[in-house]
Amino acid sequence: MKILLDARLYGLENAGLGRYVMNLVQNLARLDRRNSYTILLRKRYFNRINLPPKWQKVEADFRHYSLAEQFRLPGIIAEMKPDIVHFPHFNVPLFYSGRFVVTIHDILMHKQKGLEATTLNPLVYVLKRLAYKTVFRHAVKKAAMVVVPSQFVKKQLTEYYRLNSQKLIVTYEGFDEKVLPLGNQTRTLKNYGLGAPYFIYTGNAYPHKNLRRLVEAIVMLNQRSDRRIYLAIASARDVFVKKIERMAAKLGAKDYVRILGFVPDADLGVLYKNSVAFIFPSLSEGFGLTGLEAMSCGTLVLASEIPVFKEIYGPHALYFNPYDFTSIEGVARDTLKMEEGVRSELIAKAKEYAKKYSWDKMARQTLKVYEDSIGLRSG
């Protein structure tokens, strides 16, 4: 079987999507010695990735969500003559008519609408949103099979697009074992200007991440405490992070909030482990990878009581109402007061629980999707 994988989103600069593509490529390259692969890459990574003999790299250096993607990608794929194509995101070219599998990570943008969720001119925003809905519908309707990261996303897609549930396959994602609390912890904390105690959030600063209520909770927590308590936000700087900085200043949280920028994996594990807890206040997600990272590094996870987090974290997170900052503050305050023995037991159980998720398992399940999508079964 000849498989083509659109890996143009490869790289951590593409956040969770990039991490997903990186781990899919690396694990398939390690696991599958029978099938042959063609992988499409941006110029930045073309010469930086070493792959097995049955893997062919093809440079496709044009942006996702672009017109070049829509009009040039179908021709490049046709030249390769693959049996199946895997698009790891919804941005499937409308003019591609071959057999393909698509991964849909969430349908956040279906609900996250309005000018507060974009930096675009209103007219441009309306046109791009129309294009988004058109491309998305084409992707899920025309795909041979749809890969999703949770039962929650499967249910959403099935209901929204009236899809046959058997067409959607849940392949839970994993967490990177490279994110470990190693190295000189004192030096790492000093480099980021962090003193104890602090809570940490990692991820982007988009509106649905609900960081305003988190900052409000930290303000209240400090008002009720006789010691300073920090909130560390590890997020690559962009226009949304700048909004959070301005908002923190208006709320009187400037002295409590530390914007760390992009944090490499080598440091991230240390920041997780030395935190009071990782806080995930999001209003909507497709999975919840960063919470699993935090669990594996040995810290508590405080999370929104939304269905997907209940599905992924089970009883191993402490939950709050994400629409009420006093609920976030209350759980954070309880965490600060927690006895060390209770804390250690919760962390140990969560670390063991997190082991059920792995990129290896995800890649094996995805390979089976390829085979099933063209009527094959592995031995």
TrEMBL record:
Span of domain Glycosyltransferase subfamily 4-like N-terminal: 16-177
Organismal lineage: Bacteria, Candidatus Woeseibacteriota
Keywords: Transferase
Glycosyl transferase family domain location: 196-355
Identification of the protein by name: Glycosyl transferase family 1
Keyword Transcription part of the UniProt annotation: no
Keyword Transferase: yes
Gene Ontology MF terms: glycosyltransferase activity
